[in-house]
Design a protein that fits this description.
Layout: H1 2-15, H2 31-47, H3 57-71, H4 73-78, H5 83-87, H6 99-112, H7 115-125, H8 130-139, H9 142-150, H10 155-159, H11 162-174, H12 177-185
Helix pairs in contact: 1-11, 2-3, 3-6, 6-9
Length: 186
């Protein structure tokens, strides 16, 4: 049971580099900023299952344009995230980020990805009862969602047991023995 939740958190952290939203914000960018946002968008759209929770052009466009708007193309270029390197396959999680850079990445990811929906879809597809789903939905805090996003860029956060422990405690407190059995068998 605990292993499944840890796997879920790990998958969310890895996939979180690709985010979703219908708010791409791309219209406000121009010139080199737009080129960089477009490169990020194209790279992400190519790397993600379009049918998945993080897939599609709108998803990638949110992350691409929001990242350039929030960090600026100058800072992204300093990090080695220029158009050429992104087209060659460099990912934001491949470069050395400062705490401030990670904070911006987390802000962008949580703007673009509704982590609650992603987590809830996993539990819903596992056949968890409505009562258990409601309890989990109510217990998912912004801090838990940010910790999942942070783990994609910060190895210390990814290795921290705090988010896993919080999720485990929430699941154990919300799910009945039948729900836990259903979750374990899915």
């Amino acid at each position: 049971m605990g292993k499944r939740i840890l796997i879920l958190i790990g998958v969310l952290a890895l996939v979180a580099a690709a985010c979703s939203s219908s708010d791409s914000g791309g219209d406000s960018l121009s010139g080199a900023d737009k080129e960089l946002a477009d490169a990020i968008t194209k790279s992400m759209a190519a790397d993600v299952d379009p049918g998945g929770p993080f897939g599609g052009e709108e998803t990638a466009a949110c992350f691409g344009s929001s990242l350039v708007q929030e960090m600026g193309s100058t800072r992204l270029n300093e990090l080695g995230l220029d158009v050429a390197s992104i087209e060659a396959g460099t990912d934001p999680s491949d470069v050395d980020l400062t705490e401030a850079d990670i904070d911006v990445m987390v802000t962008v990811m949580t703007k673009c990805v509704d982590f609650r929906d992603v987590v809830m879809e996993e539990f819903e597809s596992s056949g968890v009862s409505e009562e258990g789903l409601g309890c989990i939905r109510d217990g998912l805090s912004d801090d838990m969602m940010s910790a999942m996003a942070r783990g994609a860029f910060d190895s210390a956060a990814a290795e921290s047991a705090e988010a896993s422990d919080q999720m485990f405690d929430l699941v154990m407190g919300c799910l009945s023995p039948d729900d836990l059995q259903q979750l374990g068998s899915s």
